[in-house]
Amino acid sequence: MKFKEFLKKKDIEISLKRYGIDALGAMAQGLFCSLLIGTIIDTIGTSFHISFLTNTVATVAGTDYTVGGLAKAMSGPAMAVAIASALKCPPLVLFSMITVGFASNALGGAGGPLAVLIIAIIASEFGKAISKETRIDILVTPLVTIGIGILLSALIAKPIGDAALWVGNLIMWATDLQPFLMGILVSVIVGIALTLPISSAAICAALQLTGLAGGAAVAGCCAQMIGFAVISFKENKWGGLVSQGIGTSMLQMGNIVKNPRIWIAPILASAVTGPIATCLFKLKMDGSPIASGMGTCGLVGQIGVYTGWVNDVANGSKAAITAFDWIGLIMISFILPAFLSLLFNAGLKKLGWVKDGDMKLGA
To answer: What is the pTM of this model?
Structure first.
């Protein structure tokens, strides 16, 4: 059998879409269902003094875990299984990825998510290739999948994690040094990534994007989601407002392909709100990095910022959560994106670049 025919038989598709869109997007879902949910649970427990959520519920190898802590500890396996699911792995490969995800995330350090992405993809595809090729599949497939995953984790997880962390630190350092310029760049780039069929949340998580850079990322994502929600309200009414405003602006990708100019208003809005977030409000994402790329999706970006405030107050780096903090978060997340997008879109309509119906979502 020819190599291409073998790959087709095994549903192994070496493509940017399969790895850069499907796998990356799935990784973000895995992170959401473990690290982010765990962080939210811990924040709720701490903020409302819920003892069940703040008390230790398990001790493993001398480490105490809360309910949220257990969820966060499973982020590696959750990411790897999500990636394997997106790659359409058979059951034995899928279940083997629990071990691969744990190893690659643990050895990848702070930049573990990127290590998990790369290693899980490779191990999954090798597992799929060997699956059902022998009469002792129940032994061979897990051995090959886990063996390759552990070997790669030992060899390359740390370098990949270190590289991702270095890039993330570089972006955060540059944003601290040049908050105006980097506020624009980070906000626009991450915002565009959110609307494209790739995962801005996974990108922020892989680069461990927090601090002022994380705040700029939140601003860019909010500008896209709230921006499209309000400027398309005439066409999509309340359903469109909710589905885009707290769902995803990715719903507009089909319309953007038809008329790319409808994207101008939200992009310009992000270019304005980004530096306002970094220079005026000093908006920081000191919560989970994945929240930097979520915007108003389920209000995760806002919850992440609030989580950071709570953590900073708890460790003494912040005296208290102030009214100015709340004003900044509300302005950057909702009011400015809506106002600026409507303003810019009105100008585009006068130019004839955008017309009614251009942003109508399908039924």
So the answer is: 0.82
